[in-house]
Amino acid sequence: MRVLVTGGAGFIGSNFVRHVHRERPDWEIVVYDLLTYAGDARSVEGLERVELIQADICNEASIDAAVAATDAVVHFAAESHNDNSLHSPWPFVSTNLIGTYQVLEAVRRHGRRLHHISTDEVYGDLELDDPQKFTPQTAYNPSSPYSSTKAGSDLLVRAWVRSFGVQATISNCSNNYGPYQHVEKFIPRQITELLDGRRPKLYGTGENVRDWIHAEDHSSGVLAILERGQIGETYLIGADGERNNREVVALILRLMGHEPDAFDHVNDRPGHDLRYAIDASRLREELGWRPSYRDFEQGLAATISWYREHEAWWRPQKRETEARYRVLGR
Ligand code: NAD
Ligand code: TDX
Prior knowledge:
By secondary structure, the chain is an alpha/beta fold. It has 11 helices and 13 strands. It has a domain at 2-177 and 213-237: Rossmann fold, CATH 3.40.50.720. The chain is 43% helix and 16% strand. A 7-stranded parallel beta sheet has the order 3-2-1-4-5-6-11, sandwiched between helices. Strands 7-10 form a two-stranded parallel sheet. A two-stranded parallel ribbon has the order 8-13. Helix 2 (60-68) crosses helix 4, helix 4 (90-110) runs parallel beside helix 5 (145-164) and helix 6 (186-195) runs parallel beside helix 8. The longest helix is centred in the first third of the chain and has 21 residues, at 90-110. The structure holds nicotinamide-adenine-dinucleotide and thymidine-5'-diphospho-beta-D-xylose. Thymidine-5'-diphospho-beta-D-xylose (TDX) binds at residues 80-82, 119, 121, 175, 185-186, 189, 201-203, 208, 210, 245, 269. Nicotinamide-adenine-dinucleotide binds at residues 6-7, 9-13, 33-36, 38-39, 56-58, 76-80, 95, 99, 117, 119, 150, 173, 175-176, 182.
């Protein structure tokens, strides 16, 4: 098996590459990544049987050649940060929509299996007391340029399955945490602010709820779907990890030896989704998937240790990221 992983030098893609490298020792992995500000070749370096192609998924000729030379494609490549999408939406339209179109056309031409990676944000948000979590039947209702372009990419995949018989599956996962996540994202931002002697920054009141899952568990879910999922189906991936942002910040502060209220409130994100929550019954029942990180506090402590020990990895991202946030007042 030779698998093409688009976006494999990003946060979740690189965790998936290491997962597959460990779990499927006879597979060859080709990482296809433009290495934007969010990608880092060091996240997948030193692994045997892993090759890196630096190229754009929007480039028809390069994605076509890469797809032709592999058996299956797992498509992680995307612009992934909501705050950036509010500031500068074009790269999201380009990569998430046009890039996914090029990936679909390439797998159609060459008859390859595709697994498309998406997000729970396509479903919009829930009330804090809504008893019904997101399911594969929930109507799409995205809020931001990021989530709307991800929603559009999912719809393209569904249409290519139905109209052209493309052999594809889709997964929509909740918020990931773990090693190799860019410091623009919530958890690594707060950890690295504290390591730099500054206070965590909470948007608005901090009552917004996210359903946290470790990137390792997202990866095992994706591999299960790639190998055993039903073509044309959508699987939701989540590990029942709901926490509000205030609780997460307090936990990070406590684990790093600070008072739990030693954070600052900053400007809220426009259109900020209130709550996401995943019902992963299909993945659990049909494919027998189970998360391995069941204790968020333990997973978070391990993630904090990783950032403490890997300053050389995150330091080059930090200054520019905080400069961008200063412009936004966040
Ligand atoms: P990330 O921003 O860390 O990584 C994205 C990767 O894609 C980077 O390596 C970047 O260089 C690459 N890339 C961007 N544009 C490209 C292009 N035009 N051509 C080739 N490569 C390109 O993102 P992430 O957090 O790892 O997310 C990966 C996927 O998972 C995305 O599709 C995202 O929507 C989805 N997802 C993320 C989360 C989360 O919590 N982070 C949750 C659910 C789903
Ligand atoms: O400094 C911060 N302070 C803060 O309170 C940052 C960066 C974020 N937040 C809040 C906003 C969100 O409620 O924390 C929550 C998480 O924020 P992000 O890490 O930006 O993630 P989110 O917007 O929830 O989207 C993430 O999960 C779904 C990923 O970035 C997406 O790619 C994925 O699809």
